[in-house]
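call fold target=Ribonuclease D
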Amino acid sequence: MTADPQHEEEQAVRPDAPAAVPLLAPRDGLTRVVGDRAALMRTAEAFAAGSGPIAVDAERASGFRYSQRAYLVQLRRAGAGTALIDPIPLRSDLSELAPALRGPEWVLHAANQDLPCLAETGLTPSSLFDTELAGRLAGLPRVGLGPLVEQMLGLSLEKGHGAADWSRRPLPEDWLVYAALDVEVLVELRDVLAGLLAEQGKLDWAMQEFEAVRTAGPPQPRAEPWRRTSGLHKLRKPRALAVVRALWEARDRLAAERDIAPGRVLPDSAIIEAAAGAPASPGDLAALPVFRGRAQRRLTSYWFAALQQATQLDAAALPAVTPAADGPPPVGRWADRDPDAAARLTAARAAVVAVGLEWSVPVENLLQPDLLRRLCWSPPPDGDVAAALRAGGARPWQIELLTPHLETALQAHS
C-alpha cells in the first residue's frame, strides 16, 4: 500500500479499550518473492485452487519514480496463502496470473490507488470490495488500514514503509514483512465491514460504489497540468506563467526520460523562483539558490533554453492568467454574478450535509462536490433532478437519497 497517509496514521486509544494485539509477522511465515515465470505459474495454480475472496495490494515508488508502475504485488487467498510478486524481472507482465484471479472478488484498501498500476501488469478484477470506502460509508471516523484493523479486528499494524522507494533492489526483508501484512487480514476486515454495512442498510450502496471504482478507468489527463505547480498563485503576469509552463514541461520530459519523480529533478519552488526572477542569462539562472547546486549546474543550458523559449513567445501564445473554465465560475463569485445560484448552492449544501449526518456518511461520498455545483449553477430546464444527477455520474443510491432534498433546494431559489 504505497503513499497512503491514512495507512500510517495512529489510532487514538480509548482509556477503556483493550490494547490491540500487535501483528508483527505473517502467520505462515515470509514467503519467497516470485520473480520468474515458473514461480508465477505455480502461484497461478495455487490461487486458482484457493477459495473465497482474494486480498490484493501493490507497492509503487511514488515520490521517487516518474512512473506509477507496481514494484511489488501482494496477494492472499484461503488455501493459497500469501504471494509476493516482483513485476520487474517479469517485465511488468503478470497476465499469466490473470485467469486465476478472474471471477473471485478482490479485496483492496483504497482501490483507486492500486487498480491503474495493477491493470498495467495485466491484472483487473471482475468484482471488488474496497475496505477504505466501506469504512467511509459505514461512518467510521478513521479509515486508514491501520486504524480500521485496530478498531474492527483488535490488531495493530506497525507503521511501516508505505512511502519508501519500492524500486530499490533487493527489497529489505522488513519491507517484505510489511508488504505481506498489508494483505494478511484484509479478507477478515472485509467480512466485518460488510456485516456492519448490512446492519446499517448500506451494503447495496457500497456495492454500487465499488463497481463505480472498478469501472472508472484511468484518470483523464489534466488540460494544463503545469498549473498545479506549488506557489503558482504568487505569479500574475502571463510571461511569468509562460516560464513556469516551459520549465514544468522541460522538467517533465527529463523526469519521464530518467524515470525520476519530477520534484526530485527540480523542485516546484525553483521553477517559481526562476519565473519570478526572470534571469537574463545562463549565469543569472545558475546564481539562483537551487540552480547553483552541482546537479543543476550541469543542466543550466537545458533549463535556460526552456526559459528563453518562454520569454520569446508572442503575446498571443502566452497562457491566460486565469485558466479557461469548463464549468461554473469559482463559488466566491456566485453572489455577484448570479445571486439565485448562490442561494441554491447554499440550500443544496445544507441539504446534503443534513442527509450525511442522518446516515453517517461523509458529504463527499454522498455526492461529488463538482456535480453539486454544476447542478446549482445550471439547474435542469425540465426540472428532472434525478436525470441530471444520473448524467453527472451519480449512483442509483445517491439519486434516490438526495433527489427530493435537492429538488426542494433548487425550486426554492429558481
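return ok
Confidence is low (pLDDT under 50) at residues 5-15. The chain has three domains: 5-214, 225-317, 331-411.
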